[in-house]
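Thread: "does anyone have the structure for this chain?"

Original post by V.I.:
We have the sequence but no experimental structure in hand. Need at least a predicted one for the grant figures.
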Amino acid sequence: MAEIQIRAAENSDIAIVASMFDLYRQFYEQAANIVLAREFITARMQRDESIILLAINTAGEGKGFCQLYRSFCSVEASSIYVLYDLFVRDDMRGTGIGRSLLLAAEAHARTSGVARMDLTTGINNLPAQALYESLGWLRDKTFFTYSRRTTD
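Reply from O.Q.:
Generated one for you, tokens below.
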């Protein structure tokens, strides 16, 4: 296996990130739509609305990514990151890329002065839950998460 580097995605990486973002959405049972994926990732990067960390090999192939959104915690009166997307290509799962991306996200948050990171994952996504908990993430036992659609 080629050496993997974790780094912040740049505008020149949009096509690489968008192709994986499309696969990520398919994992969550969305229809494949590379045009939508590219438009979404392009907008986030050009508007500086997210931080995307990219796992890339020496051949320039994207192997995984995570996307962080800036937010705030009113109770702590501090900024936080929402780690919304974490994806590793099927053929690279179990190689430590997900762990490396999470550790890189934590390091980025720490150097950025962010108080904490939050994430949600599917109830049935046991491999992801095991990874998060192995790195010290705590499952919330105090609050329920609610969601309400505003569009159809």
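V.I.: this helps a lot. The longest strand covers residues 62-73.
O.Q.: and The chain has one domain: 4-134.
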